[in-house]
Specification:
Length: 110
Amino acid sequence: MYIFRQLFTDEETEKQKKKILRRLWMNIGQLDIYLIFLNRGPDQFDIVHTGILKQKRFPKDDLYLLGIAKGWESAAQLSATIYQYFREKYQKTEFKEELEAEKEKLFRRF
């Protein structure tokens, strides 16, 4: 898994960011925490509950984490914020190609 260097969080997870990341690293389940990943398919993002990462067959090597939120609604709002940030940065609505081209600079290994 790779983590965006300027990881986006909502207000509730900002203070617990290191704790949440440590629990992800140790594969400990967390209630009501959602992760926002760069989508592998045609869409921009995936919003995934942390419980899905506990599945043994879930591929974790090729994931690019952009944000952490507490609750589904907060995750949806955060994904809209992330979308707006990248849309303004790259001046286009389809910015996924630019992110993939700059993966080495923007993401770090987790």
